[in-house]
Amino acid sequence: MRENNQGERYLQTDVQTRKSAAMVRILLEGIVDYAGLFPPATLPLDVAVRNYSAYRSSANAWMLGRFVVSASRLPELAAMLPEAETNNSPCRISALVGKDFDAELENVGKFNEHASQYGHVDSIEMAPELHTKIEAVSAGIPRGITAYFELPLNAPLELLKTIGRNGARAKARTGGTRPEAIPPTSDLAAFIANCVSAGIAYKATAGLHHPIRSTRPLTYEPGSVAGEMHGFLNVLVASAFVMAGFPLATINELLADTESSSFLFTDSEVQWKEKSVLTSQLRKTREQLFVSFGSCSFEEPVEDLISLGWL
What we know:
39% of the residues lie in helices and 22% in strands. By secondary structure, the protein is of the alpha/beta class. The chain has one domain (2-307): TIM Barrel (Alpha-Beta Barrel), CATH 3.20.20. The chain starts with a strand and ends with a helix.
């Protein structure tokens, strides 16, 4: 047994470390959509673009997903990418769309036409107010672009089914810069279960900087208020457990767990306490349910995983 810098205990043998690395890769490949432009980081565009380019060239680039940017800023991004993006392949971009839907969608089209050598928008994320216009909005989305509708965690099942019928996905807000912005585990568990019932995938946004649920400062400001943040591994493993048919009481307990030692990764399964799901179920979860989460930090998730011995 070893201890990490939070005093938590975890197993780390040579054999387990090798197996853990293989399973963690299955769990987390492409999962972090980099949202450095947004709170609490709120970086300037040029800094966020340089960070993303550097992350794409790093040893842990396999964990990196899309670059998240407001659609209104795509013209600025198009001007910066030729100088900042030095990788061989175009970067993937997720554009946030708000009330100026038509104009912002036009920005997406122009960007994909003129900047495709350096980046391509292949997903758009709808502002919360647009979940009341799913069918009308979906009709205007270009072919080949996946749409995510942000909606409340207590949204009715029928609304999630409407998202699915229109070929879109859901987006769940799992935190924020104030403690009251962090949803209860029961709300998150019910939302995941409804996504499974509706047969749709979802992404999460806000508050998932760390793999295991823990109490952390909610901003980077000195003296920041702290809150108990959801862990992205808690959410991911909970999603797999929902797909495997575990009851909501178990999902709630899993989401609330703050002990890294409760989780064990092998080549064939992920174990949580005495329960487990197989590799095949985890692959299915990443493909069909929990596809990614937005984080204003890519370094924090990576550093925590290294600290826990899982990278």
